[in-house]
Amino acid sequence: MERIVFIERNTIQASFRRPAFAHEWVEYPESSAAQVPERIRDATIIISNKLSLGESQLTEAPAVKLIAIAATGSDCVDLDYCRSRGITVCNVRGYAANSVPEHVLMLILALRRNLLAYRGDMREEKWQQSKQFCLLTHPLNDIKGSTIGIIGHGAIGKSMSHLAEAVGMKVLLAEHKNTEDIRPGRSSFIDVLKQSDIVTLHCPLNEDTREMFGRDEFAMMKPNALLINTARGALIQDEALVNALKSGLIAGAAVDCLREEPPRNGSALLDLNLPNFIVTPHVAWASEEAVQALADQVIDNIEAFVAGSPRNALT
Length: 315
Hints:
By secondary structure, the chain is α/β, with parallel strands linked by helices. It has 2 domains: 2-95 and 289-306, Rossmann fold (3-Layer(aba) Sandwich), CATH 3.40.50.720; 99-283, Rossmann fold, CATH 3.40.50.720. Helices cover 29% and strands 14% of the residues. The strands form 2 sheets. It has a 6-stranded parallel sheet, sandwiched between helices. A 5-stranded parallel sheet has the order 2-1-3-4-5, sandwiched between helices. α4 crosses α6 (155-166). The two termini are 23 Å apart. 35% of the residues are buried.
C-alpha cells in the first residue's frame, strides 16, 4: 500500500480528493527543513511545494518512488539526485494559465494609468485643491496599441500572449537570451527589450535564467517601459532594479515574487516606496479556480504514476 506524505499542506488552500487506490494519507500543515527527513522516512509518495528535497532529505527515505510537486517550478527538488535514485518527479502545469496573466494585466493597467500615484494624490486631498474639474498630475497611457514583450512561452506565456492580443497589444515573443538562433515567430532577447513598452517574465529559474535582468538589460529598455515579474525573484538583480527605478532607466515595475519567500530577512525591493513600483505577495497564481485546478492535477499525477503511466514527469 502506498504511503502518501504531504509535507506542507497549508500552502495549497483547496480541497484534495483522495486517490482512487489503496493508500495511507498523512499530511502536515507545515514542516520545517529539520522535520522533513523524519516525516518522509517511510513515504512512498511525497507531495511537496516549496521545501527543498535533495540527497540530504531523501537519503533516509529508501521507499520513495514519486515526488509530486504541487507547483510548476521544480527548483526546490534536486532532479539529478532523483534520477540517480530512480525517483520520478512530476509537477503541475497550466493550472494558472488564466490567473497569472490576469494578475499581470492588472499590474500593467495600474502602472500605465498611474493608479498608486493618483491614490497618493487623493490621500493628500490634491483634487480638492485643483483649479480644474479633474486632477491631471501624472501621465495616463492606454494599453491598446502598446507592445508587450513576453519572456517564456509555456502555458502561462501563451495565455499571456492571447490576453494581450485580446486587449489590442502587439506581442513580441523573446528568444532565449544569448542565442543567435532565432526561431520563427520570435524576436531576439535584445530586440524585445529595446522595442517593448512592457516586458513580462514567465520563464523558469535555472542556471541560464538566474539574474538574467541586470543593469545592462534595464539600460536597453525604453525609458517609458515597464517590467513585470510573476515568475521567480532571482530572475532579477534586485539592486539593478532599484537603481533602474530611482534613476529613471525604466518607468515602472511590479513583482509578485522575491528571492526569499517569505522575506523574513527583508529585501531591497520591499524598502522601495515609489508610486511606480508594486509588490504583491506571490499571489498571481492563487485564484480560487487555479488553486483547485492545481490540487486536482496533483492527484491526477499520482494516480497516473501508480497506474503505470506517469504524467508531467521531470525525471
